[in-house]
Design a protein that fits this description.
This protein is α/β, with parallel strands linked by helices. The chain folds into two domains: 3-235, Rossmann fold (3-Layer(aba) Sandwich); 255-414, Thiamin diphosphate (ThDP)-binding fold, Pyr/PP domains (Rossmann fold), CATH 3.40.50.970. The protein contains 16 helices and 17 strands. It has helices at residues 3-14, 27-32, 41-53, 64-69, 71-80, 107-112, 124-138, 148-151, 176-196, 219-223, 232-235, 251-254, 267-275, 307-313, 322-339, 381-387, and strands at residues 17-20, 36-37, 58-63, 86-91, 116-117, 142-146, 211-213, 256-259, 280-282, 298-300, 317-321, 343-349, 352-353, 359-360, 374-377, 395-401, 411-414. It has a seven-stranded mixed sheet, with helices on both faces. Strands 10-9-11-12-16-15 form a six-stranded parallel sheet, sandwiched between helices. A two-stranded antiparallel ribbon has the order 8-17. The chain is globular and about 75 Å long. The termini are far apart. The mean pLDDT is 96.
């Protein structure tokens, strides 16, 4: 069979859900895998991360330029962690056959500190399963890089036994710097994983690398490799694992965690979420503070504009600011409504960029009127009680309007 069919079968064996943004050379393999077409690649990865929070493995099919759109949640996931495996299948159009640019997806391994595998015709199935296992072992997304030569090649179909592991979210007791240090320690462990992988081998004619990031062999071995695309392995042949030192910083050690301003208008809504036991995917910005004491209603945050799609396949509640919605969450909201996914999307509308200096933000209501949002004043507690409930069918958007208190800053809570 052709490589595209074998790859699709391997993904179907290892994943519970598949998403895609069509584009050569990813279209055929995504279709064969039965992937759902999503509005953009960032949203597709966020859906996959939401599945991961729910304990489902998920794959995302993109072409090389589509990987660029995934960058923000891809990098965030490395530090924030995940539960079930998430794999991006990145198909590189090396000759610009149907693309505007040529690029090599392997370089995202270094940018995002994620494992990258490049299977050949003998390792397609095992490499896909190994990518999911690595995603779970190191609690981050993994990338499988393929090219048209492999997708068009005649390969032998190999059935692979699925071996689910369990990833982990970042310890909520760690500060952001502490989470980054823990992630770096896992990155260091990835180097041993790559060097010891049985997928790499010594066939006639030299070394065959499948786990291409981190570098899988000694510098002298990698120096003479023939590569498809840029000389990634030769450029990285002397790369050493990071050597993080010290203990990960914790809120308890530091003595405090950050929370909302003393007179933040959104405190009644947050208290109601806590009272009702609702957990949310939090966005970057002030919403991320809901992961800390005293509320602890947030379970994960994968970057600006990410909470909507993550919540739609994950906890069912998204907590997002008006700026984050306009920045990059709007496309996800459109996709969620098109699919009628169950979601309570809570927009904290203060008409400003609360984390970056208070710059003004356009009124979002004119841009989301099609969603028929419920609009509540932040201090209208009875209205909040009626609005902040999980919808029975499909999505619901609740816009909570409030003004940030002038001159106040985020408070600290003794930990």
């Amino acid at each position: 069979m052709k490589g595209a069919e074998a790859l699709a079968r391997a993904v179907r064996q290892s994943a519970d859900r598949c998403y895609a943004v069509p584009g050569y050379p990813a279209s055929e393999v995504a279709e064969r895998a039965g992937a759902s077409n999503i509005i953009n690649e960032k949203t597709a990865l966020e859906y996959a991360l939401g599945d991961s929070l729910s304990g489902r493995r998920a794959a995302v099919f993109v072409k090389h330029v589509g990987l660029n759109a995934c960058a923000d949640p891809l990098v965030h996931a490395t530090v924030q962690g995940l539960r079930a495996g998430v794999v991006i299948v990145a198909a590189d159009d090396l000759d610009a056959t149907a693309s505007d640019v040529v690029q090599d997806s392997r370089y995202y391994g270094e940018i995002a500190r994620v494992p990258v595998l490049e299977p050949d015709d003998e390792t397609l199935g095992p490499a896909v399963e190994a990518a999911f296992e690595a995603s779970e072992e190191f609690s981050r997304v993994a990338i499988v890089r393929v090219t048209p030569a492999l997708l068009d090649a005649d390969v032998t179909d190999v059935s692979v036994t699925r071996n689910d592991r369990e990833g982990s979210l970042a310890d909520p007791g760690l500060t952001m710097a502490g989470r980054a240090l823990v992630a770096e320690r896992r990155t260091a462990a990835m180097f041993s994983w790559s060097r010891s992988s049985p997928l790499n081998r010594l066939p006639d004619g030299g070394f065959r690398a499948v786990t291409v990031y981190p570098p899988p062999a000694a510098p002298d071995v990698l120096a003479s490799l023939h590569e498809t695309g840029r000389p990634f392995l030769r450029e990285h042949r002397v790369l050493a694992p990071p050597e993080p030192t010290g203990e990960p910083a914790r809120h308890s050690t530091r003595g405090y965690s950050r929370t909302f301003c003393r007179n933040c208008p959104f405190r009644p809504a947050l208290a109601l979420l806590r009272e009702r036991g609702l957990q949310a995917a939090c966005d970057a910005g002030c919403a991320i503070l809901a992961m800390n004491l005293p509320y602890r209603v947030g379970i994960a945050s994968y970057g600006l504009g990410s909470s909507i799609a993550v919540a739609a396949t994950g906890p069912g509640v998204a907590l997002i600011g008006d700026y984050a919605l306009l920045h990059s969450g709007l496309a996800a909201l459109i996709d969620v409504y098109e699919r009628r996914l169950p979601l309570l999307c809570i927009v904290l509308a203060n008409n400003r960029m609360g984390m970056t200096g208070g710059h003004p933000v356009p009124d979002i209501l004119r841009y989301i009127s099609w969603a028929n949002p419920v609009v509540c004043a932040a201090d209208d507690v009875p209205a909040l009680h009626r609005a902040l409930v999980l919808p029975d069918d499909g999505p619901r958007t609740v816009v909570i309007e409030g003004a940030c208190p002038e001159g106040e800053t985020h408070e600290t809570v003794v930990y």
